[in-house]
TrEMBL record:
Protein name as annotated: Argininosuccinate synthase
Known EC number: 6.3.4.5
Domain Arginosuccinate synthase C-terminal: 222-443
Keywords: Amino-acid biosynthesis, Arginine biosynthesis, ATP-binding, Cytoplasm, Ligase, Nucleotide-binding, Phosphoprotein, Urea cycle
The organism's taxonomic lineage, starting at the top: Eukaryota, Metazoa, Chordata, Craniata, Vertebrata
Catalytic function, reaction form: L-citrulline + L-aspartate + ATP = 2-(N(omega)-L-arginino)succinate + AMP + diphosphate + H(+)
Pathway(s) of this molecule: Nitrogen metabolism; urea cycle; (N(omega)-L-arginino)succinate from L-aspartate and L-citrulline: step 1/1; Amino-acid biosynthesis; L-arginine biosynthesis; L-arginine from L-ornithine and carbamoyl phosphate: step 2/3
Amino acid sequence: HSARRVTAIFRATLTVMFIVFCPKKTNRTLQRRTRAPPPPHRHIMSKGTVVLAYSGGLDTSCILVWLKEQGYDVITFLANVGQDEDFKAAKDKAETLGAKKVFIEDVRAEFVEDFIWPALQANAIYEDRYLLGTAIARPCIARKLVEIARREGAQFISHGATGKGNDQIRFELSCYALYPEVKVIAPWRIPEFYNRFKGRKDLMEYAQKHGIPVPVSPKAPWSMDANLMHISYESGILENPKQHAPADLYMMTKNPEDSPNSADVLEIEFKNGVPIKVVDVKQGTSKSSPLDIFSYLNLIGGNHGVGRIDIVENRFIGMKSRGIYETPGGTILLKAHLDIETFTMDKEVRRIKQGLGIKFSELVYNGFWYSPECEFVRHCINKSQENVEGKVQLSIFKGQVYILGRESPKSLYNEELVSMDVQGDYDPCDASGFIRINAVRLRHRAKLSS
């Protein structure tokens, strides 16, 4: 008993001394013993997976983070359609911002073969001037976007198109046509989003707050969309239709005044209405793959300042907008295709086909690439191109494309028949009756009017 008492007294003495001389350690020990256990981990349920059409720019980077804030798992998709882009930097940025997966797909070859070539066969021009560079690219991008969404089991797709433009319509109509069950998240049409981000300043503040890298160089006072076919410029200072485009705006073409003082001469060979070979006559070089052909024509046309237009157009959504476009390669091909088509196509077939081309242009501009009516029109146009083959020689010089000559094994041109020096199978007397028949209604109308 005495030994146990001594031990107890000794322990009590040590405890008192520890409390007196080490009060901080004692408090921490007591806190550890009395601290409440941590709450169980709360798992936040994801709203689903969304595939975001991503550009790597400020807008879609902010949208990526905002979608994550809303509770979505985000997969980003960036299409290489020929724009000048640092794709590795864009991929790294998306991963840093929390993208679940990042897809970067090179779709340049299919863009040319599946979208630019059908537009060329149609001689597609919207409102007589616009070669539809942006409108043609959207269904190409949307097709790959849907492919990824289906493969990844994503229930949503999202994009950064504004609520006033055509692109929102083009993207979404294409996606619904290819993936009817998909749901679209369009932030610029969601009041919670567009009331929060009323301008670039709000986006910049949000980016800085969430660690989103912001552009170091000042933004140009206009917006730009680039792909293999063209570059478009709009908004900002260009919204004043009287404002001249600044000289440093153009990125794809030289000022014609500064272009070479000697022409480039090309020969473009067509089959079924699409180019299969381009030869640089002076250099003796040639290109034969669709992507190489188009890229080379961009290079030659851009060097000579070909394909610049400044227009006001009618948007599908119901307002007029001003756009400036550079389409060097497309402009060269349009001139050449028009020439070989007229040379090889029956007059009445071509008249019907011209109407189909106008309809095709409107459908593409308005976002109906994947509609049954557009599919029908493309089929008819493709049928019309069966005999459109041959070679066109042309000169590219100081912003202009000059046709020099053409040849075709399926030409409908009869040199003997049209010659002023050879009678051929044509009897000039037949023209008298032809003229009289066509004059019947004109003479009758004149008599009634008098």
